[in-house]
């Protein structure tokens, strides 16, 4: 698949998730964890098939993933959780967007540092970075949701 097309599809998906969470949505474990897992898988696959990846690249990619996951967890701590109709609901807040903006700036700075220290541009799949960030957020929301005692929403049935 064309790289630009894949990027556009992923961007559209991320925007759709953000809009849904801005409005508020029921927290479903599958919808919380599957999208980050898919993005991470695409990113790892992209990195694995990329020629010329060095140990330096892998080290910086791993460090960036850890930072991205931590920043995602910080963002997840700002998501408003509440009970509605007997299930857990989530909604992004202004603080969520502030943390997201600060996270983008931090990751951009990290990327510049990594490039200056020898990391190749092609060794930084955007899908991996987004996926790890959303996984950190999902883990924080999931932990908080479980601690609340409010059940997660059941999976939606497609008829």
Automatic annotation (TrEMBL):
Keyword Membrane annotated: yes
Q: Where are the transmembrane segments?
A: 32-48, 60-77, 97-115
Keywords, comma-separated and alphabetical:
Membrane, Transmembrane, Transmembrane helix
Q: Note whether Transmembrane occurs among the keywords.
A: yes
Q: What is this protein called?
A: DUF1453 domain-containing protein
